[in-house]
Amino acid sequence: MRFAVAHKTSTYLMVGFAFLAMVTGGGVGPLIALGGFVGLLASWWWEPPFIRYEKWSWIWTVMSIFALVYSVLTAIITTDFLGVGAQFLVWLTVAKAFNRRAARDWQQMYLLAFLMLVAGSVLNPDLTYGLCFLGFVISSTWAVTLFHLRREMEDNLLVKHAADRASERVEVRRILDSRRIVGGRFFVGTGALSVGVFIGAAIVFLTLPRVG
């Protein structure tokens, strides 16, 4: 798998598990949940060379302001601050997925995914939350590790040593299209490590209240 695709896939898995952890408990309306799912799915293909981010950025800004005002007014009227906040989180995540241009955009997607996971701990009392949490732990390990590698390659190996802007873009694309950086062993190894950490944390969590 190409490095860019591996990073993108792991990030979307992380966001997807956090999204499911929040919406499967019924705390988010079905239309909002469906719209968020469709939006995340459509955002997968929303990237150059098919579109230009600069052309659409002002539209997303206007819609985000409208969503913020609507959420604040709805929360005041209904006093359901947590539910309305969860719906606004869905919008922010979809909007960011459609505007993932630089490293900070990927980081903000990770932060929004974590916030959805936290909101889901209150809104979703079902067993599905535990399953989504496990998926989040594994996929977040992949996503954060690959993001760190990508940022280090772009900042240290490419930007600092590129002769000019044109060569920089060529080198970045060549590295991101490489199939030799990560493979199946990486995903199996880091996934097994994440499961081990998850099991250890669960044992400690269940044991501590019973220990004097």
Question: What descriptive keywords fit this protein?
Answer:
212 residues; mainly alpha
Radius of gyration: 19 Å
Query: By helix and strand content, what is the structural category?
Result: mainly alpha
* Contiguous uncertain segments of 5+ residues: none
SSE string, helix = H, strand = E?
A: HHHHHHHH
Count of individual beta strands: 0
Q: What is the count of helical runs?
A: 8
Query: Helix fraction?
Result: over 70%
Helices and strands in order:
Layout: H1 3-23, H2 30-43, H3 53-78, H4 81-97, H5 103-123, H6 127-159, H7 165-176, H8 184-207
Protein model, in words:
The chain has about 210 residues and is mainly α. Helix content is about 80%, strand content about 0%. It has 8 helices and no strands. The chain has helices at about 5-25, 30-45, 55-80, 80-95, 105-125, 125-160, 165-175, 185-205. α3 (about 55-80) runs antiparallel to α4 and α6 (about 125-160) runs antiparallel to α7 (about 165-175). The longest helix is centred in the C-terminal third of the chain and has 33 residues, at about 125-160. The radius of gyration is 19 Å and the shape is flat. The model has no long low-confidence stretch (mean pLDDT about 85).
What's the quick description here?
The protein has 212 residues and is an all-alpha fold. The protein has 8 helices and no strands. The chain is flat.
